[in-house]
């Protein structure tokens, strides 16, 4: 990494963090996919990929897919690790809502040193996931395999425990928080309407009808917790 911690250094970390995440969601990270993820033009992404490839952070062929080298993997995993630890700090210690912490963690992740990271892990009790249920990478870049499935796959009569969400859209997180559907909460599947209709769930005896689309973004522990 460049010496010191400049804006350019942060940009490299953000790119490698995004590629690290995308590599775990599916095979092959494309320029267009990365541009969408970062909200940056494909031309800008293409230029940065060439730069990162020339510095040994990734392998990339023009108009092909990008894949992290070991050097890039270490930086991407470390940045994401610090991001998710920062989210834990913000929610567990500072009491911020889970719909607020992503943007704040994006700022903090670049300022956390190795020493602070080590202290955070101990202080937070060795957390394995972020507030949204995503695994916190280990120092070597590996991640725990979480046996989770979308709420939409659960059947009426089942009791499941919310483990996290696939998306971190603030509006969606706020709504889920309002009805109490947060990680660790037990949910009963009451009814599933046909033809893509809503899913009726019960939390502490209170029923809520949520869209099938939203139910697909909520992850629950499997096998169901009865």
Tell me what you see in this structure.
This protein is α+β, with helices and mostly antiparallel strands and 226 residues long. It folds into 2 domains: 1-145, Winged helix-like DNA-binding domain superfamily/Winged helix DNA-binding domain (Arc Repressor Mutant, subunit A, Orthogonal Bundle); 148-221, SH3 type barrels. 43% of the residues lie in helices and 16% in strands. It has helices at 7-25, 31-38, 42-54, 70-93, 101-108, 114-123, 170-178, 212-217; strands at residues 58-60, 66-68, 148-150, 159-165, 186-192, 199-203, 206-210, 218-221. Strands 3-8-4-5-6-7 form a 6-stranded antiparallel sheet. Helix 1 crosses helix 4 (70-93) and helix 4 (70-93) crosses helix 5. The mean pLDDT is 89.
Concise summary:
This protein has helices at 7-25, 31-38, 42-54, 70-93, 101-108, 114-123, 170-178, 212-217; strands at 58-60, 66-68, 148-150, 159-165, 186-192, 199-203, 206-210, 218-221.
* Distance from first to last alpha carbon: 49 Å
Uncertain stretches of 5 or more adjacent residues? none
Superfamily (CATH H level) name of the largest domain? Winged helix-like DNA-binding domain superfamily/Winged helix DNA-binding domain
- Count of runs of 4 or more consecutive helical residues: 8
Q: How many β-strand stretches? A: 8
Spatial order of the strands forming the largest sheet: 3-8-4-5-6-7
Radius of gyration: 19 Å
Q: If classified by CATH, what would the architecture of the largest domain be?
A: Orthogonal Bundle
Order of helices and strands: HHHEEHHHEEHEEEHE
CATH class membership of the largest domain: Mainly Alpha
Helix/strand-derived category reads: alpha+beta
